[in-house]
Each structure stands twice: as C-alpha cells, then as structure tokens.
Amino acid sequence: MLKCGRHLFSIEDHIHYLNNAYMSPNLKSVEVSGIVGVRAKSQPYRVISQDFFEPVDKLKQAFSNLINCTNHHHIAIVPSASYGLANVAANLTIGKKKKIIVPGEQFPSNYYVWERLAKENNLALEVISPPSYGDRRSSEWNEAILNAIDKDTLLVACGHVHWADGTLFNLQAFRSACDENDAYLIIDGSQSIGALAFDVQKIKPDALVTVGYKWLFGPYGIGFAYYNDKFLKGLPIEENWTIRKRSDDFKNLVNYNSEYRPGAARYSVGEHSNFILVPMMHTALTQLQVWTVEGLQAYSTNLIDDYLNAFKANGCFIEESSGRCNHILGVKLPDHFDMKKLSLALKERNVHISLRGKVIRLATSIYNSRSDLDAFLSAMHSSVMV
Prior knowledge:
Elements: E1 16-17, H1 28-40, H2 54-66, E2 75-78, H3 81-89, E3 99-103, H4 112-121, E4 124-128, H5 137-148, E5 153-159, H6 171-180, E6 184-188, H7 200-203, E7 207-211, E8 223-227, H8 277-291, H9 293-313, E9 328-332, H10 339-348, E10 351-352, E11 354-356, E12 359-363, H11 370-381
Parallel strand pairs: 1-10, 3-4, 3-5, 5-6, 6-7
Antiparallel strand pairs: 2-8, 7-8, 9-12, 11-12
C-alpha cells in the first residue's frame, strides 16, 4: 500500500490542495527536469538530430505501457486534448450517419469540436443530460446514453469519468453498442488516465486523448493521443517537418518527402520534440510507473473511505461506489448549507477544491492526507445555516 508522498512535491505545509483535477502540482523531480531542459537551450550547439526524435520515442513507449498499447506507433504527442480531437474530426468517415452523441455537462473541449462537425455536416448533436442527483444516477445516465446509440450514430464522445463529479461511464458497454451500429467511440481521458486503469485492449476506443498536466503529473502544454488503425492513414490538421519520413536526416530536409513517419506520428504537433516539456513528462511517467495507476486509485479509495459516512450524515449525496471513481468525488450539499459561508470557511482554512453550484469536487492524490480532508470537513461544519 502506498504511503503519502507529499514530500515529493513543493506544497506548503498549511495548504490543503484537494483539486488535482484542476491541475497537479509538479513533482520536485519533474521541476528539476524542466530546469535542465531550459538550460540545454543555452547551449544549442550540443543539441543533435537524435535529440529531436529519441526522447519522444521513449515518451511514447512509456505512455503506451500505461494504457496497455502494444505498439507505440499508435501514439501522437499533442499540446492539448482539443488538438487530438481535432485530428479525429478531420479524418472521420461520415457516410450516411446522422448524429453525434455526447453526455451533457461534458468538458467544453470534448463538445465544441463535435458541435462544429455537426453544423458543417448537417448532423444532429444529441446531448444526453444527466439525471437529477439522486439514487442510481450513474446507471440511469449510462442507460440513457446506450439507448441513444443506433444505426444513425456517427460517434459517441465522452470521458472515462465525468470531469466534475467522477461519475463512471460504462465504456465497454458503449463499445459494444458502437460496434453493433458501426459507430466510433472517442474518449477524453484527461480526468482518468494516470489515476484510473485504462486498457485499450479491453475498451478498444477508436481514439483516446489526454492532457499531461493533471493525473499524469506532467507540465502544461503536452499530452497524448492514441489512434486505432482506422486513423493511421489519415491527414493531420497541420504539416510539420518532424512528422515526415527520414526527417532525422537533416542534410536532406530540402529533398521533400511525401510520406509520413509510421503510424500516428503524423498527428503529432509541430515542435513536439520540446526539450523542456518532453523530459518533464517522461520523468512524471517514470514516477507514475513506480506508484502504479492501481496503487494511486487504491490510495484515494482508502483516504476517502473514512469520510463518506460523515458526508452522508450531513445530508450530502454521493454516488454509490459502483458508479464512480475514487480520485474524483462529487459531494452534493443539501440546501441547509450556506455557500457563501462555506467559500469563506474554505479560504480561511486554505482548502482548495472545485465548486460547481452546490456540488463540490474533491480530487485527491498521493500528496493528500487525512489532515486535508479534516480541514474540508471542518469548513463544511461551520457552514450549516442556523
């Protein structure tokens, strides 16, 4: 069982940071890698052609291992989830399909791209709204999405978990329904990859995108995209020199090559060899491999377990364990809580959480301990209206 790893981060002792879903703090080791990368640019004459390609290749291999992808050529380096999704939208076979399905209240990056695609191709964008908070919220929502998938469906685009409250989406059931109806399954894993096990061999998404700065503990501005065989002969949304075959032969770069490098490399963003971000991201994935995704999920599970009854005793609604993850916990407060008092109490106690209406998102990780949740619970108790 993992122990608290707060000493590996630079979080001040008085801070209770329960918002990893917003942005992870840098590991000290990741910060060092970034500093080394910054300094390397001061001596550009030491940068050789292999430095543009070999570190990226190792990074793709590390991410492939994380998601059980047996061939790292299915991985592209992207600056954001939206970039990875844009490559998907540009390479879909639409045919006679008539609609796109997305869960309601999805993060905007996994909505706007499909809204635009729908408008440009006269498709319906079917938004499946979540049921009101109450019993069996997850199962009802999943059932509604499954019922919407039919022969007219071009694609289903969703997260593995809902970004605001950790609701689990039944991706394997979605995959089966998409197979039956010849539809794509596109996953935004930004709030799960690194914290919740994801196996591309089992779920078989057509595409999976994720940012690096949340649960992968990497820097802002670098992420990953997995594309299955359907996309490996497509056209990227931009052309850059590094994605072409034999681009590592600098003396022949002006002898233009019409062929792309193998697999999904064609979808990698320009300047993806970034000598600062790539080593930072690789250092983060190396530490993640030590912890393991399963270990991190178990850590959050053990941490929150002792507090679930306390939340429920205060009248809060929390999804049953079968319908949610444990690294993101949605806590819906009842009406007898004063939200202004709560916001003030959280600030006074240096508790950092995400608040949407009366739903609190607690996003815990390896650097959190009981003292963080105790501080949050204290703020709750001081916010009850009298």
